[in-house]
Amino acid sequence: MAFNMDFFSLKGKTALVTGARTGIGQAISVGLAAAGAHVLLLGHRDNLGETKAKIDDIGGTYETILIDLSDVSSIREQLKPVLEKHSIDILVNNAGVIHREPAVDYKEQEWLRVMDVNINSVFVLSQEIGRGMVERGFGKIVNIASLLSFQGGLFVPAYTASKHAVAGLTKALANEWAGQGVQVNAIAPGYIETNNTEAIRNDKNRNETILDRIPAGRWGESDDLVGAAVFLASKASDYVSGHVLVVDGGWMGR
Ligand code: NAP
Question: What values do phi and psi take at 57, rounded to 5?
Answer without folding.
Answer: -60, -30
